[in-house]
Amino acid sequence: MTELRILPLLGWPEVREGDDLAALVAGSIELEDRDVVALAQKVVSKSEGRVVRLEDLEPSKRAHELAEGEDPRRIEAILRESARVVRSRPPLVIAETRHGFICASAGVDSSNAPDAGMLVLLPVDPDASAARLRERLLELTGRTVGVVVTDSFGRPWRAGTTDVALGVAGIRPLLDLAGRRDRTGYELRHTQIAVADEIAGAAELVMGKVDGVPGAVLRGLDIAGEGSAQELVISPERDLFR
Amino acid sequence: MTELRILPLLGWPEVREGDDLAALVAGSIELEDRDVVALAQKVVSKSEGRVVRLEDLEPSKRAHELAEGEDPRRIEAILRESARVVRSRPPLVIAETRHGFICASAGVDSSNAPDAGMLVLLPVDPDASAARLRERLLELTGRTVGVVVTDSFGRPWRAGTTDVALGVAGIRPLLDLAGRRDRTGYELRHTQIAVADEIAGAAELVMGKVDGVPGAVLRGLDIAGEGSAQELVISPERDLFR
């Protein structure tokens, strides 16, 4: 490892449904083999038409109960995206999404929506989104890259959000150190590093939230391989922190 | 923001108590103003003599109870570093440290210890460690940098560890977007980004765990300021995820 470079993707227009994100990536940077392209979930979702209008949502009884003065239509959108509600302190809702991710509002977000009154939802299958982008990038550029779809998640016990990986393609999301030994011969048991989440967080450092930088390219990593962001979802039985 | 570079610190010897880490940093890279130097807790702790020998630990009754076949002296070290035990599934212990961090084994680690039979503890005051390093780097190099002391933490709901910030100096650990607006005028309320944790994770990407790379320099960030890693510890009342 000599150096890791994190190059912001600049000069993007507002993304709309049907836009070719791979073409936008290829238009803003000259890709190299083994680059990792990190893209914010928001642009991936928008390109896939994963937006809803508040006015098209009919709040259920439960949405009204959870809303407590906030717009119940927004809560309705959250409930529709949720497998279960984990915690609720109105108007905040922590939910488990159908992908198994646990996050605020089941990932439903009104910031950076195409228009006021619209909500952006998470991709239906972020791994598949990443895989399609990867394939299309190979087609357009001839380069074999990794792709990570990122989003900002809060977490227990620590303030602030960090970006994590919702979907991956062409990389191993977990680096498993089991069986490797440190300098003194101590075996590093049970140690897995969530490199896909660290990639997402590193990309966030150049993305900002309001400056319209939708992603970044990481150059200098050596983590090509196969994997799914589902590997980052830990089962309750294995999760000592839960 | 044009580009973020993450430069590994290479060629370090095994760190011992009393070693001048700032001199080691300055010896492996030409620093620039506004660089952020991320150093693994392990080398910071070793330089500060924060190691204990297993043979010097007399396990308490509680340590024996929690050990269940593992070495009770290791559990004793963990209990001494803990403000409280959060969860326990022997031989694993999740604890809150005296700093307020919640992590496996209260940060006590036997990997990468100076010798077999030794345990490395977290620094007593990681912010102070970072501040001393920052001051000494200014003295040695004339450069004004930020410093982050990092460690690998597990987290609820997601597999694997990511590096987070235990101590900071010369940077703002949280980027507060409150009051800023996105492109459609939507105000980004309550949005704080834990940039110090993202810096730690980004640095980890070039550090590895067994290759003896003790840290990295991040070049191209614009986050100079004042702050404490204690800002990253969220109070139970504010923590909807807990």
Task: Give a verbal description of the structure.
Chain A folds into 2 domains: 1-49 and 123-234, 60s Ribosomal Protein L30, Chain: A, CATH 3.30.1330.100; 51-122, CofE-like domain (CofE-like fold, Alpha-Beta Complex). Chain A has 6 helices and 12 strands. The first copy, chain A, has helices at 21-28, 41-47, 61-67, 72-81, 126-141, 195-207; strands at residues 4-8, 36-40, 51-53, 82-89, 92-97, 102-104, 118-120, 146-155, 158-169, 175-176, 192-193, 215-219. In chain A, the strands form 4 sheets. Chain A has a 5-stranded mixed β-sheet with strand order 1-12-2-8-9. Chain A has a 3-stranded antiparallel β-sheet with strand order 4-5-6. In chain A, strand 8 (146-155) and strand 9 (158-169) form a beta hairpin. The first copy, chain A, is globular and about 55 Å long. Chain A starts with a strand and ends in a 23-residue tail after the last strand. In chain A, 50% of the residues are buried. The model of chain A has no long low-confidence stretch (mean pLDDT 92). Chains A and B meet through strand 1, strand 8, strand 9, strand 11 and helix 6 of A and strand 1, strand 8, strand 9, strand 11 and helix 6 of B.
